[in-house]
Amino acid sequence: MKFATWNVNGIRAREAQVAGWLAAERPDVACLQELKARPDQVPALLAAPADYWSFWHGSGPYSGVALLVRRDRAPSPPAFFHPPFDFESRIVAAEVAGVTCASVYVPNGGKDYAAKLRFLEALCGWAEERRAAGGSLLLGGDVNVARTDLDVYEKDRRPDVIGQRPDERALLERLLGAGLVDVQRTLHPGVPELYTWWPPWRNMRARNLGWRIDYLLASAPLAARARRCEAFRELGTSDHAPLVAELDEAVAPA
Q1: How many helices (H) and strands (E) does the chain have?
Q2: 241 near 208, Cβ under 8 Å?
Q3: Start-to-end C-alpha separation, the chain
Q4: Reduced to 3 states, what is the DSSP secondary structure of residue 57?
Q5: Closest among 54, 12, 57 to 39, alpha carbons compared
Q6: Residue 50: pLDDT above 50?
Q7: Contact 104, 91 (CB under 8 A)
Q8: Is 0.85 surpassed by the pTM of this model?
Q9: pLDDT band at 253, cuts 50/70/90?
């Protein structure tokens, strides 16, 4: 199974790039964020792609998320839904082959830091409830928190800066404590420069001076089947890179 996420920073600006990426990578589940478009503004090439069931959740020139599920992974349309803490079109989820998959876009926090913390707290509570009910989760998205200093290029490490503050990092760890695994970091422990976002100035992306703030999080039994998780820095013109994980299929008991 291939699970992917990409903050596209404007679906209309990145139409051809996203369509080409879907055709080349063929993820079973694709999570998109920062659409900056209403559903009726999503380009026709992507609004109803032939190989995918899709749900576009946006309300205008800000925020917005989408969830795309390959039709050969889900023969009938999934029941897409939004947890009750959704606001500003920041989360969409669906049950796919017994797993709850969700595309998540956590607020940056620059304009309303308290709203960011509330959203993270609610996301933690939702994950904890799903775990208590025995459900499996795959969460993909822009969490807007660098988990540790290793996830920020050295000269930009500042504990007072939003995205690196102790309280938001603690909430990210609480989310992981709800039975979720940071797939990329687990497969690459201690490896620096696994960045997924770069400031759009001074050639930062080409120099790979960025932050790791996009994640694929999986319930532990699913994460144990992960054999690859990587970001594609060279792909596209968004300020974020797509992140793709491959999970081996579960082996049926003999």
Answers
A1: 6, 11
A2: no
A3: 21
A4: strand
A5: 57
A6: yes
A7: yes
A8: yes
A9: very low
Q: Measuring CA to CA, which residue among 39, 32, 29, 34 is closest to residue 18? A: 32
pLDDT of residue 223 exceeding 60, the answer is: yes
Q: Specify the CATH superfamily of domain 2-247.
A: Endonuclease/exonuclease/phosphatase (3.60.10.10)
Q: What percent of the chain has pLDDT over 90?
A: 94
Place of tokens 């839904």: 81
Backbone φ, ψ for residue 83 (5° rounding): -60, 155
Q: Closest Cα to residue 168, out of 129, 119, 210?
A: 119
> In 3-state terms, what secondary structure has residue 218?
strand
Domain residue ranges in the chain: 2-247
Structure letter (DSSP) for residue 248: P
Tokens for 183, please give them. 């797939």
151, containing H or E segment: none
Q: Tokens for 33?
A: 């964020």
β 2-7/29-33 pair status: parallel
